[in-house]
C-alpha cells in the first residue's frame, strides 16, 4: 500500500477515535496529521509551479554523424527549496536523453546541464514536450506539470567527400553557351552595366569605372555545362536491408548499437541511396553545376535545377524526410520526367532496382543526346534480393557509366571508379 493511502487511513482512524471517545490525544493527533497532509500537498504543488525551465538548442538543423547540443536550466522561483525535481523529456530524436533529476534546489537558485547527442538518423524530429514531477518531504504526494512547448529539428542525411568523382564527371560534355544572365560569378563575362544597390564589390569593373567616373559592374553568363538531374529510386518494392536497432526500453545515453560502418549508415538500400544523392548534390553544387532532384517517395518530389548553397539546403531538406513508399518503378519515372529534358542534361540514376527495362530507357535517352549515369546499389548484399549483375552487364554493354555500391563498402571508394566488363 502506498504511503499516502496509509497516512489517509491513519488520519481517518484517529478522527473516528476522537469523535467516539472525545479524548484530547486523538484530537491532537488528528490536527497534526491534517496539518501534515495540508503542508505536504502545498509543498508538492509549489514544487512544480514555482519553477521555470529554459531550453536552449544551439541549432535546429543538424546532420547524420554530427552532434547536436542543448542547454537546460531550471530556476526555483519560490521561497521554499525543492527537495527533488524530475525533468522528463519526451523528444523523439533517437538517442536523445535530456531528462534529469535535480536535487536540493534552494530558493531562487538555478541548476543547469548540457546534453550532447550524436544524430544517427535523418528526418524531422520534435524536441519536447517536457514533464516536471516533484513531491513532498514525506512522500505523501507526487504531482506532474506538463510543459507542452515543442521545437522542430531537422536532421539532414550524411554527405561524403567524393574526390575521385571530380575528374571523370568534370569531363562530361555540355551543351552550347546558354546566353543567359546570372547573378553568380562565372568565367564567362557577358558585358558591363552601371552599379545597382546589392551588387557585390568583387563584380566592379575598375577600368570602366575609372574611365566613366561611375561605378560599373560586370555581368556574367551561365557556364556552358549541362544541368544535372538526380533520380532517386524510392520504390518500396525494390528496397532491401533493415535499420540498426536499439535495446527495447533502453534508458539513458548508453545505447547498444551493433558494429556499424564508419559513416553510421543504416544497412538499407534506402539510406545508402539517400546518402549518395545528398553527396552527389553537394559535390556537383560545389563544382558550380546546376543540380535538380526527382524522387517518387511519399509523393512526387521535384526540385528544379539550380546552383548555390541555397539549392543544396533545399535538396537536403527534401532528402531528410523522404521515405521509400513509392509504387512506380524508376524506369517509368525516368521515362516520364526526362521527356522534357534538353540535350544539355545529365541524368544520374540512383537505384537498387534489378529491372532490365531501365537499360532500355537510358539507351533511349542516350539517343536523344542526354547523358545517363547509374549508381547501382547491389541490393543482394543488403538482404534477400535478386542480383543486379544482369542489369549491370546491360548498362556496361550500352556504354552507360555505372558505379556499383555494396553494403558496408565506403561510398567514396564505390563512387571512385566506374564498372567495366571483365
Concise overview:
The chain has 422 residues and is an alpha/beta fold. The chain has helices at 3-21, 24-49, 166-170, 206-212, 269-286, 309-321, 330-337, 357-367, 389-397, 411-414; strands at 51-57, 61-63, 67-76, 82-89, 100-105, 110-118, 123-127, 130-135, 142-147, 151-156, 181-182, 188-194, 216-221, 227-232, 291-296, 300-306, 345-351, 371-377, 402-405. Helix 5 (269-286) links the parallel strand 14 (227-232) and strand 15.
Task: Describe it.
It contains 10 helices and 19 strands. By secondary structure, the protein is α/β, with parallel strands linked by helices. The chain folds into 4 domains: 3-48; 49-156, Immunoglobulin-like (Sandwich); 163-174 and 225-414, von Willebrand factor, type A domain (Rossmann fold), CATH 3.40.50.410; 181-221, no CATH class. A hairpin with a 6-residue loop joins strand 8 (130-135) and strand 9 (142-147). Helix 5 packs antiparallel against helix 6 and helix 7 (330-337) runs parallel beside helix 8. The chain is elongated and about 105 Å long. Mean pLDDT is 86; it is low at 166-179 and 247-261.
Strand order of the largest sheet: 16-15-14-17-18-19
Tell me which CATH architecture of the largest domain applies here.
3-Layer(aba) Sandwich
End-to-end Cα distance, whole Å, is 77 Å
**Helix/strand structural class:** alpha/beta
Report strand %: 25-35%
Shape: elongated
Give me the count of strands.
19
Question: What name goes with the CATH superfamily of the largest domain?
Answer: von Willebrand factor, type A domain
What is the oligomeric state here? single chain
Helix residue percentage: 25-40%
CATH domain class of the largest domain: Alpha Beta
Q: Which spans of ≥5 residues are poorly predicted at pLDDT below 50?
A: 166-179, 247-261
**Secondary-structure element order, N to C:** HHEEEEEEEEEEHEEHEEHEEHHEHEHEH
Number of domains: 4
Kindly report the average pLDDT value.
86
User: Count the helices. How many?
Assistant: 10
Q: What is the CATH topology assignment of the largest domain?
A: Rossmann fold
| Major sheet summary line | 6 strands, mixed
